[in-house]
Write a structure and sequence with these properties.
This protein is an alpha/beta fold and 371 residues long. The chain has helices at residues 4-11, 15-19, 21-50, 93-105, 122-137, 170-183, 200-209, 229-239, 274-281; strands at 80-87, 107-111, 156-164, 167-168, 187-194, 214-215, 219-222, 256-261, 264-270, 285-292, 297-300, 321-325, 330-334, 344-350, 364-370. The protein folds into two domains: 4-239, 3-Layer(aba) Sandwich (Rossmann fold); 256-370, Beta Barrel (Cyclophilin). It has an eight-stranded antiparallel β-barrel. Strands 1, 2, 3, 4, 5, 6 and 7 form a seven-stranded mixed β-sheet that branches. Bound molecules: flavin mononucleotide (FMN). Residues 29, 32-33, 36, 65, 89-95, 126, 129, 162-166, 193-197 line the site of flavin mononucleotide (FMN).
C-alpha cells in the first residue's frame, strides 16, 4: 500500500488557508490521520507477512477502500448467514477491520459507498466531509449507492465506519437513516477506526438514527491499536457470542423466551399448549406492538394466525399475561389485570415485573426470541 497520495497534499498547504479557524481544526486532524494511515499500513504488511491465512483484500477490493470507484469492491457472500458486516472506509483501515470480522465469521459483507466518489485531493475531501456533516445536522443526507432489502436472516449486523470529526462517517449515517425501519429490533455491533478519538459521538449518531435497534458493545481501533487487530477482533467477537460455528440450537422444548424492546430485554415463560408451541416455532419474531384500550393491552396480528389446536380456551388475564383474542386472532399482552373472558387464550406470561417495559400507549418495535 502506498501512503504517498495521503502525504502529498501536505506539501502544498498554503499559510493563508492554514490560518483560517476551520483549517486550524484540519491541521489538528492531519497528524492523527497520517498516524492512522501509517500504522494501518504497517498493520497491513505485518498481517500479510504473518501468513495467518486471513483474507487481506476483499474480492474486487482496492487500496483506496470503499471510495466508490469499483461498484462491487468489498462485497462478499459468506457461508454463515447469521451475521452481516457493513462498512464504509476511505483509506482502508475500517475495511481491514471489516475483512477480519468477515473472515473470522465467514459471513456476508457489503461495502457502503457514496454515490459520488470522494475526491482524491485531500483538502477537497476534508471540505466535503465537513459540508456533509453540516448538511446532516440540517437533515440532508448525502446520497449513497448502497441499499439492502432485508436484514431478517441476520442475528447481528456489524456496522463499521471511520470517525470523521468525532462523528460516524457520513455514508454510513445515510445508510442508517435509509434503513432505520428495517434495522429496528436488530442487534447492531458498531466498529470504528480513528486517529485517536473515541466512539461516544458516533454511538449517539447511531442511536439517534436507529433508535429501535439493540446496540451491543462497540469496538474502536485507533492508530495506536490498529496493529492489534488480529487479537482484538476475535476477543470482541467472542464477547458478543459471535462465531463461525453453528450456534447451539435453542432447546426446542424450552418455554423460555426473551422479549427485547428499546435496547432492554425481559424474559417470559410460555404455556405448554398448542398455540404457544406454534408461537415458539416462529421465533425469532420482530413485530410492532400497538396500544389497545388506552394502555390496557399491547397487540399485534400474527400472520398467519396462531394454531389453536390442543389449546384450552378462556382466561382471567393478569398484568404480564400473553394471550390470544380468539375472535380477531391477535396476540394481546396485558399491561394491567382484566376480567375473565372465554374469548381469551393464555399462551404465556412475562416474568417478574418485566411488563413495565411495555407499559404506556406508544407503539413499539419488539423482538421475541428463544433463550
Ligand atoms: C474527514 C476526516 C475527519 C477525521 N476526523 C477524525 C477525528 O475527529 N478524530 C480522529 O481521531 N481521527 C479522525 N480522522 C482520521 C480517521 O478517522 C482515521 O484515519 C481512520 O482510521 C480512517 O479510516 P478509513 O481508513 O477506514 O477511512 C478523520 C479522517 C477524515 C478523512
Amino acid at each position: 500500500m502506498s501512503i504517498l497520495p495521503n502525504l502529498m497534499p501536505l506539501y502544498f498547504c498554503d499559510m493563508e488557508r492554514i490560518n483560517k479557524p476551520e483549517n486550524m481544526k484540519r491541521l489538528f486532524l492531519i497528524p492523527l490521520m497520517l498516524l492512522a494511515t501509517l500504522v494501518g499500513a504497517m498493520a497491513c504488511s505485518e498481517d500479510a507477512l504473518s501468513g495467518d491465512g486471513q483474507e487481506q483484500t476483499a474480492p474486487g477490493g482496492n487500496e483506496e477502500g470503499g471510495n466508490g470507484d469499483n461498484e462491487d469492491a468489498g462485497n462478499v457472500e459468506g457461508n454463515n448467514d447469521r451475521y452481516l458486516v457493513l462498512y464504509c472506509s476511505r483509506t482502508g483501515n475500517t475495511e481491514r477491520m471489516a475483512q477480519t470480522i468477515r473472515s473470522t465469521l465467514d459471513c456476508d459483507m457489503i461495502v457502503v459507498e457514496p454515490e459520488t466518489p470522494y475526491e482524491d485531493d485531500y483538502n477537497a475531501m476534508l471540505d466535503r466531509a465537513q459540508a456533509e456533516l453540516d448538511a446532516i445536522a440540517q437533515g440532508n443526507y448525502p446520497a449513497i449507492a448502497t441499499s439492502v432489502e432485508s436484514f431478517d436472516e441476520y442475528d447481528i449486523v456489524f456496522i463499521g465506519y471511520p470517525i470523521w470529526y468525532s462523528h460516524m462517517a457520513t455514508p454510513m449515517q445515510t445508510f442508517l437513516n435509509d434503513h432505520a425501519g428495517l434495522l429496528a429490533g436488530k442487534r447492531i455491533a458498531l466498529f470504528a477506526s480513528s486517529g485517536s478519538s473515541g466512539t461516544g459521538t458516533s454511538e449517539r449518531d447511531a442511536a439517534t438514527l436507529v433508535p429501535d435497534a439493540v446496540f451491543e458493545e462497540s469496538l474502536l481501533l485507533t492508530s495506536s491499536t490498529l496493529g492489534n487487530m488480529a487479537t482484538r477482533i476475535p476477543q470482541w467477537l467472542e464477547s458478543l457470542g459471535a462465531s463461525r460455528e453453528e450456534a447451539d440450537a435453542p432447546d426446542a422444548a424450552s418455554l423460555n423466551i426473551n422479549i427485547i424492546a428499546g435496547g432492554q430485554t425481559v424474559t417470559a415463560t410460555m404455556e405448554d399448549n398448542g398455540a404457544a408451541r406454534d408461537f415458539l416455532s416462529r421465533l425469532p419474531l420482530e413485530v410492532t406492538l400497538e396500544d389497545y384500550n388506552n394502555g390496557t393491552e399491547k397487540i399485534f396480528y400474527p400472520d398467519p394466525e396462531l394454531s389453536l389446536e390442543e389449546t384450552p380456551r378462556g382466561c382471567e388475564p393478569h398484568a404480564g399475561d400473553i394471550t390470544i383474542y380468539e375472535p380477531w386472532g391477535n396476540v394481546a399482552i396485558f399491561c394491567r389485570d382484566w376480567p375473565e373472558s372465554n374469548s381469551l387464550i393464555k399462551i404465556g406470561h412475562i416474568d417478574g415485573d418485566g411488563i413495565n417495559l411495555l407499559q404506556g400507549t406508544e407503539s413499539m418495535n419488539v423482538r421475541f426470541e428463544r433463550q
